[in-house]
Every structure is written in structure tokens, then in C-alpha cells.
Amino acid sequence: MSDINFANFEEYEVTPKTHKTDSKTVAIKVILCVLCVLLFSEAIIYLFIMPCLGPVKIFWRGLNGYTEREMNSVVAPISKKNWINFSAGDARSLVATVPGIEDVQIVKRFPDRVYLSVTERKPVAMTTVMQGRRTVSVQIDKNGILFPPSNATENLSLPLISGIPVENIPEGMRIPAKYHGLVDQISNIREMTQNYFAGISEIHVVPKEYGNYELVLYPLHSQTKVLVDRQLSEKTLQYMMVMLDVVNTLEKDVSLIDLRYGSVIYSRHLSDRHTDGGV
Predict the structure, then answer these.
(1) What is the pLDDT of residues 57-100, one digit of tens each?
(2) What is the rounded distance in angstroms from the CA atom of residue 188 to the CA atom of residue 180?
(3) What is the per-residue pLDDT across 136-195, written as a single tens digit (0 to 9) for each?
(4) Contacts of 13 (CB under 8 A, 6+ apart)
(5) Which of 121, 229, 126, 231 is nearest to 181 (CA)?
(6) Contact 233, 189 (CB under 8 A)
């Protein structure tokens, strides 16, 4: 075999044909990017834009004496507004019309949620008011504000205050200012460990001259009334309990015990009226 002469062969460079392939890859990437942008935009629209244009979703916190249905009816005039137009001030004004609500905190969370955290009034006593031709019971908080009883407070042992001139005063109004001290005293006593008011059925206010007043206490398990001054305290109630035991042991048919002047004065059923107490 003869040798092959390679001298006459020309040298050629082999160039890969990648230009068209690169163009297709870039086009695919561009299309994918556009699709991703469109999907992201659609997600933004459905997740954020559309919800904030629809009615808000209202969530309540702190409700005990009221139901969500009751409170939703209170804010119904603004419940159809969207998140942008929903006014926290308007919501606060509407909730403030509920006598049993002391405070409300409102938080708006984008895109469509509104959280209303309420603080309900805590009763310290109760009284009665005229509602039309009926006498109904209302509760009094530590600030002297009247509000209707609720399921959360109906089983509480609350002292009944009578004699306060609150006839025909609508719920949500305060009792007269001169009786705020009495309510404050009752509130302080209720915070003590011993429930003194569990043994008292009624606290009757007896008006006196110059805007002053005294108190007649009605023990729950005794027919004897106790007359004290306007300063109601733990010491007063303890003294009352001791004197009830002492007087009822020494005397029968005692109608009234007067503890106003540091000494004990009592009267029997014969008169049923204490000359100094005006009862």
C-alpha cells in the first residue's frame, strides 16, 4: 500500500451552529418572564386590590355580654364600605352608642380586615329606672354610668341602690355627681377579698338638707335596718354586722339601728320611725 499524501488537504475550522439556538432560548426566557409578571400581577389583583375594593370583614374581640350579631347590627351603617373608605372614627362613634361598652380599639389590616377590640363596663351596683310605665333594673359602673344588665353579669352579687333620683334617665347617662362618691366607695369594697355585699339586699339613699344624704342598709337575713352616714367603708360594714348580732341578742323586734354618731341607738317596731334619722 502506498502512503497517503495529506499535504494537499486544506485545513477547515468547524464552527458550531448555535446562533439560532441562542435566539430561541432568549425568546423562551422572555416569554416566561412575561408570563411570570402577568401571573404575579393577577395574584396581586386577586389577593390585594379586589379585596380592598369589596366590603370589609369585621372581627370582634372582648365580647362577653354582647353577641357578634348584636354588635354587627350596631356598625351596620358602615359595614358595607371597603377597606379604603372604612372610617375607624365612624365605627368608634357607633360602638360608643352601646351603653355597656366602655372603650373600643380599632385596627385596620390591609386588604379587607377590621378588628374591633371592646372593653365592656364592669358593674359595681344596680338601681332601677322608669322605662315608660315599667320599672326596670340597670347596672352602674365605677364611673356612675347606667347600662342594661347582660348575660355575663346577671349572676353577680351586686348591691341594689335605691333612692337615687334617676327616674326616666336614659341608659348611658351618669347618675348625679354627688352620688359618684358612694359608687366609688362600693367599688373599693367590692375589690376586697370578703364579699360584704352578699349580706346586704339594698342600700337606700336618704336625702338631707343642703344636698347631703345618709344611707339605710337592709341586711339580707334580718328585718332590722341600719342607718349610717354617707361614708361607706369596710369598717362600717363590719361594725354593722357586729351590732346586728349584739342588738338582736339583747332585744327582740328591733326595727332600726342608728350608727351615725359613734353610739348605738335602736328602736323597736312600736314606732318604726327614728326621730333623728327621718326614716
Answers:
(1) 999 999 998 999 999 999 999 999 998 889 999 999 999 999 89
(2) 12
(3) 888 999 999 999 887 766 667 789 999 988 755 665 688 888 999 999 999 999 998 888
(4) none
(5) 231
(6) yes
